[in-house]
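User: Teach me something about this protein's shape.
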Amino acid sequence: SQADIIAAAKSMKEIEGLIHQWNLTKFYSLKSLIDGKGIMQIKSIKGGPRLGILMEQLWDWRILNPTGSKDECLEYLKTLPIPPIEAQTTKSKKPQKKKKKQ
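Assistant: First, the predicted structure itself:
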């Protein structure tokens, strides 16, 4: 309907305004300031789900600080706790059927 189109256009204008307000017009060109190897070395962890969680947290920081420096990002990384093992996302295995005693 016409009302839906108008509402969608307003939403798009609001989103566009936020993109400019948050200085994210060139977000697609942002690069990670610290790679996975750097994170593993600084946090003394191995690759895996914990690394993935830390990388996501650094991207969140990067989005909120698009002009942030590598040194600022390193300082932020040092404040992050190592994610607990429970935070890992593992594939659940199908329970195995018990063998019947004969």
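Now, about its shape. The two ends are 68 Å apart (CA to CA). The helical segments are 2-21, 36-43, 49-64, 70-79. If you'd like, I can walk through any region in more detail.
User: That's plenty for now, thanks!
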